[in-house]
Amino acid sequence: MNHFDPPAQWLAHMRSALLLATDPSAPRGENPRVGCVIVDDSGHVVGTGFHLGAGTAHAEVVALAVAGEQAQGATAFVTVEPCRHSGRTGPCTQALIEAGVSRVVIAMLDPTEQAGGGSAELEAAGIEVFNGVLEAESSAINAEWVFAYRTGRPFVIAKTAMSLDGRVAGPGGSPLAISGPDSLKFAHACRSEVQAILVGTGTVLADDPELSIRHGATIAGEPPLRVVVGGRSVPPNARIRNDAAPTWIAGAMSPQAVLTELFSRGVRSVLIEGGPHLLQSFVDADLVDRFLWFIAPILIGEGPTALNAMEGAVGVNVQSVRMLGEDMCITAEPRRPST
Predict the structure, then answer these.
(1) What is the distance between the alpha carbons of residues 274 and 205, in angstroms, rounded to a whole number?
(2) What per-residue confidence (pLDDT) applies to 1?
(3) Where are the beta strands (DSSP E) in the chain?
(4) Are strands 196-200 and 225-229 parallel, antiparallel or unpaired?
(5) Sign of CA pseudo-dihedral 265, 270, 276, 281
(6) Which of 272, 223, 228, 215 is nearest to 243 (CA)?
(7) What's the pTM value of the predicted model, to 2 decimals?
(8) What is the mean pLDDT of each run of 10 residues along the chain (339 residues)?
(9) Which residues pair with 290 in a beta bridge?
(10) What is the Cα–Cα distance from 108 to 199, expressed in whole angstroms?
(11) What is the pLDDT of residue 284?
(12) DSSP per residue over 89-152, as a string?
């Protein structure tokens, strides 16, 4: 494989491929988000495609089908290394070889043992391969997918809304509107970017949430799986049991057991939405990978807090602080030893 400073045209084509990978109709799932652009010798784009989820044609195959015979001698710009294995679809490396492309430019390598290594297979077939073109951008698009592969569990985001004095509900845990409209809109956008939403039975019994995606947010494919964790019974008429989205009543399971089961179901990203007991259990187990802290400019004075006593302080690295109307949203990630 070749590593070098790519020409401006190559960067432009790879950016187009990255835009395809993040198309609104491209669902998130157990496969990476991939875009592909086929360019002929004259620099004209002759084929484009992106992956539409597990079981569907991969981005390279879609783009090659559009290009047809014009793929002969062309360059393929792909955001993730073409796979070399046969699963529910055939290997993309073989499709590129059979199409007669002369060059493949890759953003990021595929880290999986099953599908990775496609670059060597392409080079063995006489195709010129260049790697690392806008690698950071492609890695960012697939950060949760890469994390899940390396750890064997989904990437976990914990979202909570609180008052300025740290309360997440009113006295005695009574439901209370805390976040403003801009925060709600952003929160639903966050829901649309994960594959599962977790709540505890306490939240279901107190708030009867539906956990659907609203406030202008849209999603490709199925809505996130709704997961209820806890030992108390969920009423048969609870809104979380309706047909707005699939639901799994997990029962009294440990955080690690829940994530293991979700991973086996193909879930690679999870959003914890409550309540305090559930959040505490995931923090105590060091199973939260990103915090979304929504802070509203109100004082409640009495009521439950997002977290209770812990054995020691948990250090975090603040990634961003943004204003959402009158609310503040802090995005942070836990400090962990590099591995």
Answers:
(1) 12
(2) 62
(3) 35-39, 45-50, 75-80, 103-108, 128-131, 155-162, 196-200, 225-229, 247-251, 269-274, 290-295, 316-324, 327-334
(4) parallel
(5) positive
(6) 223
(7) 0.87
(8) 79 97 82 94 95 86 96 97 80 95 96 86 96 94 92 96 91 86 93 94 91 82 92 95 95 96 95 90 94 95 83 86 96 83
(9) 157
(10) 34
(11) 92
(12) S--HHHHHHHHT-SEEEEEE----TTT--HHHHHHHTT-EEEE-TTHHHHHHHTHHHHHHHHHS
Q: How far apart are CA 278 and CA 259, in angstroms?
A: 13
Provide the pLDDT for residue 314.
Answer: 82
Residue bearing tokens 């309706």? 242
Q: Is there a contact between 197 and 191 (Cβ–Cβ < 8 Å)?
A: yes
Q: Is 139 exposed, middle or buried (0-12, 13-18, 19+ CB in 10 A)?
A: middle
Give the whole-angstrom CA distance, residue 162 versus residue 58: 42
Q: Are 107 and 78 in contact (CB under 8 A)?
A: yes
Report whether 73 contacts 101 (CB < 8 A): yes
Q: Which residues contact 65 (CB under 8 A, 6 or more apart)?
A: 47, 49, 57
Provide the pLDDT for residue 72: 97
Catalytic residues: 60
The token pair at 209 is 């949430």
SS3 state of residue 274 = strand
Residues 6 or more apart in contact with residue 113 via CB below 8 angstroms? none
Phi (first) and psi of residue 150, to 5 degrees: -75, -30
How far CA 203 is from CA of 168, 227, 248, in Å, comes to: 11, 12, 15
Provide the total of helices (H) and of strands (E) in the chain, helices listed first.
10, 13
d(CA 178, CA 39): 51
Give pLDDT, residue 88: 67
